[in-house]
Structure formats: C-alpha cells, structure tokens
Amino acid sequence: MNHILHVVGARPNFVKAAPVLRAIRKRGLRQTLVHTGQHYDRNMSDVFFTQLEIPEPDVNLGVKSGTHASQTAEIMRSFEPVVLESKPDMVLVYGDVNSTVAAALVCSKLLVPVGHVEAGLRSFDRTMPEEINRIVTDRLADILFTPSEDGDTNLLHEGVPRERIHLVGNVMIDSLIQLLPAAKSCPKNGFPDRYALVTLHRPSNVDDVDSLRAILDSLTNVSKELSIIFPVHPRTRQRLAEFGIDTQNLKLLDPIPYIEFLSLQSRAAVVITDSGGIQEETTYLGVPCLTLRRNTERPITVTLGTNILVGDDREGLATEMEKILEGKQKKGLRPPLWDGYAGDRIAGILQKM
Ligand code: UD1
Questions:
Q1: CA gap 79, 34 in Å, rounded
Q2: Which of 58, 71, 147, 320 has the greatest CB tally within 10 Å of its CB?
Q3: Looking at the structure, do residues 17 and 83 belong to the same domain, yes or no?
C-alpha cells in the first residue's frame, strides 16, 4: 500500500479523518485529501481544518448542498475523474454522510479498494438517510474499521467476512483526546457556569414543523431551570425561519468551532442533542447526554456510557432533567479502545497490507 486517498465532506468527517491523516503521515505513506465541499461555510469547514491541523485538501470538488440524489450524484460525477487521475491504492471514507456513500460507489465501480472508517454502526431505522449510507458503504467496502464490538457483530450478521473487519476503536475520540487540553484552557467567554448545551439538526426533528415546535417548547421549559447554550446548525436555522418559529426565549448562536465546542461540552451540566458524534463525546467526557431520538446507531453510549434516549417524550426529558438538576445523573464508563490510538491502529493495518 503506497498511496491512500481520503474523502471528507461534512463537519464530522473532518474530526474523524484528522487522526488517521496524522498517523499515516508519520509512517511516510503517500496521501491525497479530497474535500467534496458538502459543508462549505467557514465555520462548518475551514475552522475545523485549522484547529485539527488538517492539511489543505489537494482537491475540493465544490459540490455544496442539494437534494440527497443531486448531492450524491454530483459528488460521484466530479470525484470519478479524480480517482482515475490520481490512481490511489486505497480510498478511505469516513462515517455516514452523503460524501461517504458517493465516494464508495465510485471507487467500487472503478475497482479501487475502499476502506470504511466507523463501519458497522446501525440504528436499524431506514428512515434515517445516514442508515442507508452506512449499509451501502459497508456492503461495498473491502476493509471495515469498527469503533466498538457492536459494529463487528452487525457486520458479521450481514455476512461480511471476519478477515475484512478490524476493531480499531473510535477515531473521533482520538481528536477529542488530542484537543481536550486546549479546550480546557478556553476562556469562559461570558457563558454561565451551569448550563445545558443543545444541538439539533436531524431531518426527522427539524424538517417537520410540529416536531421542531414541540422540541423548542420543551427547550423553553428546560431554560426555566437551567441556561441553554444552543449553537444552531444551518439546516435548523433555515427551518426555524421558514416555519416562522419564535425563538426569543432561547439564545441562538452560530455553529461553534471544534475546540470551543469541546470546551462547552466538557463543562456542561447536560447535553441535549440529536447528533451521533456528540453521544460518543459526552460518553467519553462523562457528561450526561439526553438524545432526542428513539434509536441510536451508537448503542454502546447507552449501555456503557452516559447517554439516554428520550426520543420525542417530553415528560421523559423533563424527568431526566430533574434527576440531573438534583445531581442524580446517569454515570457511565468509557468503552474499550476509545483511547486516542484508533488512527494509529488504522495506519498500522494499512501499512502492513
Ligand atoms: C450532514 C449529514 C449528517 C451529519 C451532518 C453534520 C448527510 C446525509 N447528512 O447533514 O449525517 O450529521 O452533516 O453536520 O450527509 N448548509 C449550509 N452551510 C454548510 C453546509 C450546509 O448552509 O456549510 C445548509 C444547506 O442549506 C443545506 C443544509 O445546511 O441544504 C443541510 O446540509 P447537508 O450537507 O445536506 O446535510 P446536513 O444537515 O448538514
């Protein structure tokens, strides 16, 4: 294995790719970095590259937003000539976003081996676009790097040969461990001492006016007991405006850079979210996490970590909030191999191939 090409596109991809890029660079292999442009705003992309010390992409496909079909198709169309020209020995794709599945499809048709970082996660909920991306990408991948044992179990169930699966741990936690000292020394920036940190962007929560309104009502209730810090994803910001939802009771912020967001997570009394990665980060940090989803592709954060699925159950959210305010929050453990060396393990496996 001499030449590895990485494909990233959306915010969580950057956090996952950074430690792998670093570990492969240390081993002196040739690498090419392709940014699809799925996320393009400065605070959704560039800031992450700077803070995570990711080198400037060799190629930016500049695809930007669109429907699922048009975004995926546009990434495929513009990525194919890049693969044909750069002739990598392997292409690494990350997570479960549209950029991940688009790149995997292109490579498998060109007979270029695909490695999937964060393989095997399943919510078993096909109404989530990411679940489709996960299933298809894993089906196409030649080598599958899993973050936790449940990923191996899911893949074996689906008939993936054992020898293709490598349990390496969680690359997102590699980035967290690397930048936690910087996060801990971040100034408080006028934020309150005790607060709930909120993020919200899943289509099932924000694209439906009634769901979004109900969640904001619940958050307004929470804000009577505890200050809320709510950095708003562009998708959610658009929907709030489109639906004319009043957000005066909640202080809405723009998306926050990685280190500052990590700092806010590590100091939060509770995190309320529908993100995937944040369920993992809070589990590592030991911070209570209430997830506004009925299922998760990251069950280890519930069985072992601090995560609780509250779905759309408003009373459930209120009950869990009460426990947290009384200091009776759920305690958790850190999953095995979430230790800062997942990227090194991946690089070691690739080097031997
Ligand atoms: C994508 C991923 C999701 C991931 C999330 C992290 C898919 C299917 N979804 O969702 O799994 O959790 O990223 O953030 O790939 N927009 C901007 N600026 C940007 C990027 C997006 O304004 O830099 C707006 C666009 O109007 C766009 C909308 O946000 O229509 C949604 O962006 P998109 O990339 O389609 O999906 P995300 O909701 O970000």
A1: 9
A2: 147
A3: yes
Give the domain CATH number at 235. 3.40.50.2000
Per-10-residue mean pLDDT, the chain, length 353: 96 98 97 98 96 98 97 98 98 98 98 98 97 98 98 98 98 98 92 95 95 94 93 96 90 94 97 98 98 97 98 92 94 97 98 93
Candidate from 135, 201, 280 with most ligand 1 atoms within 8 A of CB, to mutate: 201
Q: Is residue 330 part of a domain?
A: no
- Are both 187 and 296 inside the same structural domain? yes
pTM: 0.96
- Are 310 and 347 contained in the same domain? no
Task: Supply the pLDDT for residue 35.
Answer: 98
Cβ of 132 closer than 6 Å to ligand 1, yes or no, is no
Q: How far is the centre of ligand 1, averaged over its atoms, from the C-alpha of 220 (Å)? A: 25
Ligand 1 pocket mutation pick from 38, 67, 280 by most atoms within 8 angstroms of CB: 38
What ligand 1 atom has the least distance to the C-alpha of 276? 12
CB of 9 closer than 8 Å to CB of 33: no
Q: What's the pLDDT score for residue 190?
A: 85
- Token pair of 23, please? 């570990």
Contacts of 21 by beta carbon, 8 Å cutoff, 6+ apart:
6, 31, 33, 54, 55, 343
Say whether 201 is catalytic.
yes
pLDDT at 274: 97
Q: Cα separation of 289 and 273, whole Å?
A: 7
Both 30 and 124 in one domain: the answer is: yes
Residues 204 and 271 in one domain: yes
66 pocket-lining for ligand 1 (C-beta < 6 Å): no
Asked if 67 and 138 sit in the same domain, the reply is yes
Number of domains in the chain: 2
Give residue 39 CA to ligand 1 midpoint distance, Å.
6
- What are the tokens at 306? 């601090």
Tell me the CA–centroid distance for residue 268 and ligand 1, in Å.
25
End-to-end Cα spacing for the chain? 6
Range of the domain at 318: 182-325
Identify whether 19 is part of a domain: yes
